[in-house]
DNA sequence: AACGGTGGACTAGTATGCAAGCGTGCCGCC
DNA sequence: GGCGGCACGCTTGCATACTAGTCCACCGTT
């Protein structure tokens, strides 16, 4: 575990120690390198990352706001198990914000932005062909980020990211299915097409359908990794 | 300044020192007791609140995520000035989330929840008659919170609150106008009426109009307190 | 053998100490 | 008188020390 974390840490020189620690831990959590249910320890993490407890603590507090970890005083810090309710919440938030954003974007997107979106899709296709999951994941994020930016409210993407911890873990677990990637790229194309026609209703409808695709992967994952999921109250 | 802070602190025994400090500071910021542009100091705040720098630091980091303060390394921490762009962002987020929530709520709200909403409105009317601004403000928050809860995604209200720092400061500054309160109560009644008829479109339209009312108070406030606002780049 | 109590080793929460950087005011120089 | 430079005091960032509380395993007793 330590080596991966150190790599992720080295990647991002920005934002001081605290920012690096937060990014490193968040990456590790979303990518599943720190599996749900696992117990963390501030001391352990601090040692792995080669920093003191202070920045680790501050990062963990932020991650708790993101619902990715649970901090139990005098007991320990735990990687949140994936909760169906939390996934539903995240999906709701994402739909609400991104759909509102794309309606705006449809009225104000520029040609340059449309070209940039198409370029991103092309890169996604390359990543799919190369089977590079991580790259595809990043490009997908970039696509949706660019979408929000075109609306003039980049804040939307910031919030989606922070609210989306549970959902992103599901995304990462479901990406390995190759045909999903092709389907997603097609839908991205449809979204951009609707944007190009400046049609808010159509753009919203297409995006909403696209966003709901993620959920289709949920049940198989739950069947495959039940230990990652919160037990439902009967 | 210290006395008000200590009072706010005493109010909330929940959540340990860190939670108390965060709540106290947030209240003071949103209520305008810590005016925009003011310079804060971790040492000063720690002394006022009777705790050490550590919980203050962690609270300030969260408040920076809320965009209520700006932390400049090696220089100081400042109360964010109200930024028109940030207000617009907050309004966008709030509309997107609350309107999505009320659409859901219209399909699943229970009779008991409708009664609770009506009870809140009645209390708002009392607060208005008594001229109790703080109480009215709290009841308004409670109303919108209950709305989100009825949608099954209480998380929406949590996010709205955290994203709404700038907007809430405007709300607090504009509340003193008495006729606004009466108008808001009327609109609350309309929202509940639309919910009672299980009409998502109408509920959303009414709520959206209601939420935009806040913005109508923006310009007079900017005229009255220009020093609270971020200078626009020409 | 089974149960109860006690001690140790862990946890997070908080407080404090040290390092590095920026702003400002003062003092000397031109 | 005006300007350049240095030094002091302030800031936050980070590391470390200490407190309080929980869990768990071991040991003594019944």
Automatic annotation (TrEMBL), chains A, B:
Which InterPro entries does the record match to this protein? GntR_C, TF_FadR/GntR_C, Tscrpt_reg_HTH_GntR, WH-like_DNA-bd_sf, WH_DNA-bd_sf
Tell me the SMART domains matching this sequence.
Answer: FCD, HTH_GNTR
Q: Give the molecular function GO annotations.
A: DNA binding; DNA-binding transcription factor activity
* HTH gntR-type domain location: 15-82
Q: Which UniProt keywords apply?
A: DNA-binding, Transcription, Transcription regulation
The cross-references to SUPFAM superfamilies, in alphabetical order and at most eight, read:
GntR ligand-binding domain-like, Winged helix' DNA-binding domain
Q: Which Pfam families match?
A: FCD (PF07729), GntR (PF00392)
Matching PANTHER family, A to Z? TRANSCRIPTIONAL REGULATOR, GNTR FAMILY, UXU OPERON TRANSCRIPTIONAL REGULATOR
Query: What's the protein here called?
Result: Transcriptional regulator GntR family protein
- Organism field: Patulibacter medicamentivorans
